[in-house]
TrEMBL record:
Keywords: Hydrolase. Pfam families: Abhydrolase_3. Residues 135-357 form the Alpha/beta hydrolase fold-3 domain. It comes from Oryza barthii. InterPro entries: AB_hydrolase_3 (IPR013094), AB_hydrolase_fold (IPR029058), Carboxylest/Gibb_receptor (IPR050466), Lipase_GDXG_HIS_AS (IPR002168), Lipase_GDXG_put_SER_AS (IPR033140). Belongs to the 'GDXG' lipolytic enzyme family. One of its GO terms (molecular function) is hydrolase activity. Coiled coil: none annotated. The active site is at 222. The keyword Hydrolase applies. This is Alpha/beta hydrolase fold-3 domain-containing protein.
């Protein structure tokens, strides 16, 4: 059959052959067009609508100050916090048996605190009656993030309270940039005196009935350690006592946030990094205090000022890889050399970064530092 068709085509003239080829091409083209127009198109999904264009001139989109990884301030005044905004409820901690509750210190400003009480030993509660040291704790976060109610601080205070057996008051002060320094100091001072007043005769039963106000400690990490130091300095300038004649026994500074214009020890000499710390401090205090102000650089104080520190014991912890390590060690040395008559302890952790014990609470190094903290607070 095929051979017969070939013979028939071969017998055609050249013109007839060209006509036949053209017809075949036309039929092929028609078949292609038919497939294009008749096949279903349900698989072809429309593209999603595009995002509306960002108005680059809108003050709500213009960065006024980038304090990453903590927050970004926009020209409109909008603050975007990148961390430290979570909140966990108070209650009974299953791991430690510690009970916590929230209290309001000043309704007009919103300043408050989270309080912690350790479980009683044995079957009774006699060991809690007026015998527990009182710890006032100030959280860190560069003065701009975190609170007394975030998970990392709630977990840490549960552990400290259980191991040191203290009544703890974790202060929730207002944050910059909405409330620049000295607001954090003023709020903390108000909270500290609230603790002192309630510990003597106030309505708060955990302080009045369980706490021993003759063993009052202040502590904090990073910016909170800075606050603890400044509270003890303020108490010293106010006669050395708080409301009701309460005195501060000791302060515990965990990786304290101190800085200054000129490097100390092996502190970084990188100009860009030092400018960065200077700029962030200016942001925190809205330019009110320089980087050499004693609030952030205690080393700028003369010896007579150091001797006003209103406590008899100080402990400073530092972390090996922390930018603030050298100034923390210099703080301890300057306090000893000033003629201040109290006891200074130091604790250093090798191979760790700033406030590592909050980010790695289960590590052996964190457990070891917690033992130091508890021993310092429970020591008679």
């Amino acid at each position: 059959m095929v051979a017969k068709i070939k013979r028939q085509i071969g017998g055609l003239s050249l013109l007839a052959k060209l006509g036949l080829l053209l017809l075949a091409l036309l039929l092929l083209l028609a078949a292609i067009l038919l497939l294009v127009f008749l096949l279903p198109r349900h698989h072809r999904r429309p593209l999603p609508p595009g995002s509306p264009p960002v108005n680059a001139s809108d003050p709500d989109n213009i960065v006024a100050f980038d304090f990453s990884p903590f927050l970004i301030l926009y020209k409109s005044g909008r603050v975007h916090r990148m961390d430290g905004t979570d909140r966990v409820p108070a209650g009974v901690d299953e791991a430690t048996g510690v009970t916590s509750k929230d209290v309001v210190i000043d309704r007009s400003t919103g300043v408050g605190a989270r309080m912690y009480l350790p479980p009683a030993k044995g079957a009774g509660k006699k060991d809690l009656a007026g015998a527990l040291p009182v710890l006032v704790f100030f959280h860190g976060g560069a003065f701009v993030i975190e609170s007394a109610f975030t998970a990392k601080y709630h977990d840490y205070l549960n552990k400290v309270t259980a191991k040191a057996r203290v009544v703890a008051v974790s202060v929730d002060y207002r944050l910059a940039p909405e409330h620049p320094v000295p607001t954090a100091y003023d709020d903390s001072w108000q909270a500290l005196n609230w603790v002192a007043k309630n510990g003597r005769s106030g309505p708060e039963p955990w302080l009045r009935d369980r706490g021993n106000m003759s063993r009052l400690f202040l502590a904090g990490d990073s910016a909170g350690a800075n606050i603890a130091h400044n509270m003890a300095m303020r108490a010293g300038k106010d006669g050395g006592q708080l409301e009701g004649g309460v005195a501060i026994t000791g302060i515990l500074l965990l990786d304290p946030y101190f800085w200054g214009k000129n490097p100390v020890g092996a502190e970084t000499t990188d100009p860009a990094r030092r400018r960065q710390y200077e700029a962030t401090w200016s942001f925190i205090c809205d330019g009110k205090y320089g980087i050499d102000d004693p609030l952030v650089d205690p080393l700028s104080m003369p010896a007579p000022e150091w001797r006003k520190l209103a406590c008899s014991r100080v402990a400073v912890t530092v972390s090996d890889l922390d930018d603030f390590k050298e100034r923390g060690k210099a703080y301890a040395a300057a306090l000893r050399d000033s003629g201040w008559g109290g006891e200074v302890e130091e604790y250093e952790t090798a191979g760790e970064v700033h406030v590592y014990f909050l980010d790695k609470p289960s590590s052996p190094k964190s457990a070891k530092e917690l033992t130091f903290v508890a021993g310092y607070l429970s020591h008679e």
